[in-house]
Amino acid sequence: MSDIRNVALVLGASRGLGLAMTKDLLARGWAVVATVRAPPPRALQDLPADVAERLDVEHLDITSAQDLRALRHRLEGRCFNLIVANAGVCTDIDANMDAIPDDRFTAMMVTNALGPVRALEILQDLAPPDSVLAAMSSILGSQTENVDGIWAAYAASKAALNMLLHDFASRQATRRAVVAMAPGWVRTEMGGASANLSIEESIPRVVDVLTGQAGKRGLHYLNYDGRTVSW
Predict the structure, then answer these.
(1) Fold exhibited by the domain 7-223
(2) Using CA atoms, how far apart are residues 199 and 128, in angstroms rounded to an integer?
């Protein structure tokens, strides 16, 4: 793989958006390191040989700092043009704050906010100055654009992610692009059957947006269609 110019690290590729992003990047000729919590899904095991040779699968629980540091050690010497922290969880979407169990609220905060930014903190030195560091956010995390105040606990976790990315980016100075990526409301196991976008309508455009940020320094909150989202 020494002649491959573009290499991505996708954290959370077991299913849904992360799996689709991995497949899209591979289809574009990228080399990809994809992390999963369990055995790799069949879609990553049954690839043609010329594609499979560009894919490495690593085990990672993004909520575990120990797992992240172990992954960083295993990836010593690698260089990534794109690192995307995609892992996320959504529960109790209709619950008011007097009803949601503490453990499920905490799980969303750790998985959706702390885990992704801690991953970028630990892995950032594997990315050169013209690379892109991103985490999967949501328009629901925008205090301006989530006008209906829906999915309160999940939205709060994405707003927390955005703030942590703001802090992270402030310490990047002019070194890299940092992106809070809103993929749209997508029909996945987490997004549900009522979502207005298919994976095929979202992910190729997400990848276009992310790869298009290479060399653009600073923090960006972007929608899948390239529009800047209001914080």
Answers:
(1) Rossmann fold (3.40.50)
(2) 29
